[in-house]
Fold each of these.
Amino acid sequence: MAEEFQHDLEKDNTASGEIEKRVSKSRERVTNAPVVIILCVDMSEMDAYPDEHRQRAEYIIATQSAANAGIQLLLAAHAEGLGGVWVCSPMFAQETVQTALNISATWEPQAMFLLGYPVVVPEARARKPIEEIVKTI
């Protein structure tokens, strides 16, 4: 994944020093995590439709279900005193992840969760008042 990340940054004309710094930080986050979980979508278990509109909707349903499972995973980890971060880098290197982990080509990597006991627990960020983010009709 690091190589693909580097190539993407090169295509974006990112300065070489910045590329090295970002790739190194990314690699370090993954290799230093006590637990890494890859979340995948498997469309082989979903309904198949003859038209593109409904098939696309089915794919969105699958990815929403996977995202919901990811949130539940992070909440469960938090309840056990673990810290976690969700990164989507596997989306940019799906075949590489499939090959490296020897998983089926039908398993599409969607996200990566890095879990462990936090060294420092950050202060909770200020949240917007509910009236600013919810519209009641």
Amino acid sequence: MNLPLGFDIQPTTNPLGFNYGPGVFGPPCEFRSLDSIRPSLLDPQCAGPDPVYAIAMDVGTEDRREDLLARNLLFGVVTYAAGCLGNEPVRSQGHIHAVSQSCGRSTPELYEIWAGRAVILMQETAEDDPGRCFAVTAEPGEVVVVPPGWAHATISADPLQSLTFGAWCVRDFCFDYVGVRAHAGLAWFPKLEGGALDWIVNPRYLVRSQLIRKSPELYRNLGLRPGVPIWRQYLENPETVMWVPRPDRAENQWSEFVP
């Protein structure tokens, strides 16, 4: 992992997790087992890597710890196992960001891909009509924004390598799985066909959606600078990412948002 992230953190594969360098804080990893995500898979009985991924919420450098607390910002890191889940890529089960007590609403998330190739699958709702659905493919160094209230899952598009990414979140984050689990997943299932990613509609949604496949936007309207690591953008100007814990600061962006 050769991206200039701004602090010393390295993913590991055996065991799955992270090593923190000097001056970097972070908790022991949590692990998502295969059994925990089976209900949202195309084939719930499939075989695959276990644990599926490791996640560490609240990492950063010691000199910024107090500032992160004061701003209600949290930086999380995730690394996925290589391989596949039956005929599906390694992925998360999908959720919505529940209403945070700190701001009284669902909050957005800012992803940055560090290694591998990601597809962020997202849809406007987890109701019977999922609304607009996007599959946003991102390479290392690219960022993806998930707007408030949208259901989303992160997918590893290359089974031959691990996917690793960082993300800015609100500190009092909470996940809502109700709508996704009621439909046994998001509106589209990813499937590997000859090493390439294909998509199968989830028939449990009553309204058939169109899946829009695309690259990430540059998000200049949110104040982001393409090609600059999101930790460094925070260091140089913390206000750049303050719409994450305070989505009202970008209120005019969310209604017709295109990721």
Amino acid sequence: MMYLLAVVFWFFSFRKARGLSEKQIPLMASLTAMFFAAQMMNYPIVGGTTAHLLGGPILAITLGPYLGLISMTIILLIQALIFGDGGITTFGANVWNMGIVATFVPFIVYQLALRVTSTQRGKFVGVFLGALIGDVLAALCAGLELGFSTTFPYGVPIAVTAMVTHHVIIGIGEGAITMGIILALEKARPDLLQLPKLAPSLLGGS
């Protein structure tokens, strides 16, 4: 089921990504490498599960959720095939949680913030809340998937509580990191923030 949902999003993402510009490719590659390394630094929580930074919010906000999904797919595939992290059987679920929920939700929250206010403070509030909410909802999905799994030794309440609680803290950190990267880009390379955002047209994408 999760694979089928992922395939639908992959179809539109790779279709949109065929016309990437010379500026989009290196930015996407740099952020993908950065959060590949960040995701390798995780810590254990209940029942053998782990928590870590995601990276989807910054990818979605700078390049759009379609490219965010492609980047996260690359990260998760390398982790599954080379490092045995997650594995192929859970690949579809991981892509849904971190590649779709954790990229589309931050982008939507950020776009809503831009429509509500045009101030710099409002924009950064949107960046922070987008990262936080995206991380928490991705963790909620993972908790539900784990809780309903027949191989998981704990039930839904414990799995969801553990995942969401830890990722609220991680989401705060991810929000701060995302704001920091946006601020750094504004000072050093503001042109990169003006790149087209690859997203569904109803979300304001190109």
